[in-house]
């Protein structure tokens, strides 16, 4: 992905944008720019999603809640990395990626509502932790920050692929959303590589996997 020159943004402007984004992420209903993949299903294709058993509904809701938490963290990471970088073009890259991820946030929240369930009660905690981590990585170097994006997106991609194996086969609505999210996360990782990402050390990658495991296990229930 090519970086094009852009008008410099002051740190104060970037900080205000990050603060506004955090409030919107945690306390407002996200609005997707693109329609949910589930909305493209025919009535026949969607029929199974509307006739899930109680156990199937609970499973789908738990998995979609985990995916929603992942998108909460994605917003925090991209916003903090946009704040940390001094490169205007890279800041624009992070902000554009965050905007695209809002679609995922909106789709998963909508699907949770359709399933009659809620988002994680710990979303402010997830957001704060992810924001702090993204800020630290961004302050180390831009290439390191981009490498963190690549590793995060690769892990999320694998995580979403596992959800496609776990979701009820007839829940075509949830499956359509997860499939599109997987495709988008793969693209975000590829774009970060093209922008100059540096590979993260193996111990850092391992620590990220452990942290992700804790988050997904807790968010599955809370």
Plain-language structure description:
The structure is a single chain. Helix content is 73%, strand content 0%. With 222 residues, the chain is mostly helical.
Briefly, what is this?
This protein is mainly α. The protein has eight helices and no strands. It is 73% helix and 0% strand.
Overall, the morphology is globular
The portion of residues assigned to helices is over 70%
* Beta fraction: under 5%
* CA-CA gap between termini: 38 Å
What's the total helix number?
Answer: 8
Which residues form runs of ≥5 with pLDDT under 50?
1-7
Present the secondary structure layout.
Elements: H1 11-27, H2 43-46, H3 54-84, H4 88-114, H5 123-140, H6 142-166, H7 172-194, H8 202-219
Helix pairs in contact: 1-3, 3-4, 3-5, 3-6, 3-8, 4-7, 5-6, 6-7
What are the salient characteristics of this protein?
222 residues; mainly alpha; globular; disordered N terminus
């Amino acid at each position: 992905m090519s970086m094009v020159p852009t008008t410099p943004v002051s740190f104060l402007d970037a900080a205000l944008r990050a603060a506004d984004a955090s409030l919107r992420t945690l306390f407002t209903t996200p609005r997707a720019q693109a329609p949910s993949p589930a909305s493209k299903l025919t009535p026949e294709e969607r029929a199974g999603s509307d006739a899930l058993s109680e156990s199937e509904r609970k499973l789908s809701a738990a998995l979609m809640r985990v995916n929603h938490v992942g998108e909460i963290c994605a917003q925090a990471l991209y916003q903090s990395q946009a704040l940390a970088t001094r490169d205007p073009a890279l800041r624009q890259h992070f902000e554009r990626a965050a905007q695209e991820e809002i679609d995922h946030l909106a789709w998963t929240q909508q699907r949770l509502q359709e399933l009659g369930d809620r988002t994680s009660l710990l979303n402010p905690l997830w957001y704060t932790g992810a924001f702090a981590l993204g800020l630290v990585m961004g302050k180390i170097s831009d290439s390191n920050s981009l490498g963190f994006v690549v590793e995060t997106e690769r892990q999320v991609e694998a995580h979403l692929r596992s959800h496609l194996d776990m979701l009820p086969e007839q829940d075509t609505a949830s499956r359509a959303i997860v499939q599109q999210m997987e495709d988008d996360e793969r693209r975000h990782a590829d774009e970060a590589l093209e922008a100059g990402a540096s590979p993260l050390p193996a111990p850092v990658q391992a620590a990220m996997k452990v942290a992700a495991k804790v988050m997904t296990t807790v968010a599955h229930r809370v």
